[in-house]
Amino acid sequence: MDEMDLVARPAPTVQRPLLGMTILVVEDSRFACEAVRLLALRSGARLRRADSLAAARRHLGTYRPDAAIVDLGLPDGSGLELVGELAQAQIRPAVILATSGQEAREARDAAEARGADGFLPKPIESLALFQQAILAHLPPELRPPGLRALAADMVEPDPLALSEDLDYADRALSEGRPPGYVAAFLEGLARTGHDEVLLAEARSLAAHSPDDIAPRLRALISQRRAQARRAI
Known about the structure:
Helix 7 packs antiparallel against helix 10 and helix 8 runs antiparallel to helix 9. This protein has two domains: about 5-140, Rossmann fold, CATH 3.40.50.2300; about 160-230, no CATH class. By secondary structure, the protein is of the alpha/beta class. It is built from ten helices and seven strands. It starts with a helix and ends with a helix. The protein is globular. The longest helix is centred in the last third of the chain and has 22 residues, at about 210-230. A hairpin with a 2-residue loop joins strand 4 (about 75) and strand 5. A five-stranded parallel sheet has the order 2-1-3-6-7, sandwiched between helices. Strands 4-5 form a two-stranded antiparallel ribbon.
């Protein structure tokens, strides 16, 4: 950490323990990213979003985040690639966290093997868990002084972001994205939205043949888009 960086940034406080930090979230879901945005806002951190590996690498070419939260399922590859790159970078972010809507144990093990400091399973909605996941890996000079009470706050993303994600899933399928990617995207969306029915339906697609998945996905997305529009 450069001394000039410490002079320029505001000091963190008990109420805003991540004040002065910049967090890069690499996440293809607007709904999931909205939850992280709310958590970062309440914590005092600035948030930048990249929705793919390519976009994340462009961001990293122009600025250095203090922390990175990387989704493992991205439209142009595995987030594990980026986790490994960040962990081996000459100037490494102070905190590298992975996140996923897939089975947490396998995802956690894979991410930590690539050099991630920790793992945030979806849904990411607890202010206390979000802050602690980052603070636990920060150097002492970036942590707030004194004791800190754990916040009990939970965030709820805007339902409009959920509708946008369903539109994105429909476009991804029409543009030729692998059906397996779209099914995994919907699984993560279901976890973020606590939608057990959608979660079961998305996971059940794994039992079908690749030719059979696409029409089932289209039907599922169409049904959910109609429900989401009625809810807004």
